[in-house]
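During the no-cost extension, the postdoctoral fellow (Dr. R.K.) reprocessed legacy sequence entries with the updated structure-token encoder. One reprocessed record is reproduced below for audit purposes.
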Amino acid sequence: MNASKISLALRTRNPGCDIPAEIIALARKNCPALLANHPELTRYVNDRHRNLFLTEIMINSLGFMGGSVIGQHYGFFSGMLDATTDLDVAAFFATHTAPDYTLVPPENAQSPGVIYRFPRLDTRWTSEQLLLADYYQAPGTLVPEELIRSLEAAVPAEEGIALTHTCFELRRAADVGERRYELLRFPAGCVAGSRVGRQHAAVIIPDEVQKGIDLGPRAHPIFAVPVIWPPNSQLCLQSVEDLHSRDGLGVFYFRHSGRPPRNELSPAYLWPREDFFLDAIAFLFLAGLNYYANPAFGLPVRLDLIDAGFGSLDLPALHNRGRHLVDTVVVGREPEEAVAGRLESTSQRMMYLAFKAATLCRQGHGLGDAASLEASLRVVRKARKLDGSSCVLAALETVVLEALGRQHEIDESVERLMQARTEGPDATVEGTKFLEFYMKCLGSVYGWRYHPEFAWLVYELYQSF
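Re-encoded structure tokens follow.
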């Protein structure tokens, strides 16, 4: 598809429709001029990537509350209102203008300044309870600085990242879906050196207001024609709390003197460049975790989406630090062992390893990434040591070897596959059904019969065989 066809596709779609992911991916890769000529598409692509990163990676790595409040302060939308527990920090933001955060001279002020004070709600929740909370359980206010500081421990940065990676994989591994965010530990002192700590971050979380309206015999709300609704039908209207009307809100107007609230409160201090969470976000982008989210649409490495606060980030240096963490945590430690060791039963460990191997296989083939295929082979062979009788795992090993082009090993793998087929407990399965599975595996990898959820296919078949 060339640029003119993509442009035509964009023009012919309704404004409120979702632009197909393949159009976006193709535009980013092959038609940078198209993005330049359609700023609304660039904005859409950026917002889509921000949302994918927050919901599929940050929240699955750090929990809803942890992922949201950290993501909120590094440029990823969370639906929460930024606040602070420090009056001087509030005064800084009330008297300085973005993007350079220069002090507004009193004579240039168009109107009095204003600072809003919200009452802090006492949730009486432990850190573990907050990390396990979801959107519907979230408290009305939260001080993430305190929540994250409670997770500090005497661990090196690499260990903190490794535990984040473990939590992500436990959450995303097939039906395991374990929320084990109590495992999270961050290096001691990391909060004080981050923008979360230096800005004494807090967040105000709006309530979602739902109201059911009894429909009865009335006109359709969109087409304005009489409709006979089923008995007791209701239309659920959703809205967001008006924070200005929250009980206990205080409004304080002022005119400032022209002096900064506190001398050390500068943009460089409030947005430090040596920040553990900046490196953690770079790691999450670079580690390729997005392929658990949607194998059909890979989220690119978008370090440019991180909010610099002021000025610009040294993206090459941030990329290098993130890559070092990936090499140390993902490549150097064989993390599937650490994750599998956290699971309670052999069955769960086997399902995790099968899902992990299939995911890496799909990722490696989709990107032409031999390292991912090698990792897939390593994982599937670990799984086969635990369950040597499974024809599903034997077939998956053969598929990975095919993708790597290791013809000299394929014959041995096929022999093991047939041995598992005829001697193991799977021998009761009809040969035609097994052959169909094997062809599905090959078709998923080589495109004969494209299956975007290849990992889930392997997972389901492993359960049934």
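Residues 208-240 form one domain. Residues 39-72 form the longest helix (34 residues). The remaining legacy entries will be reprocessed before the final report is submitted.
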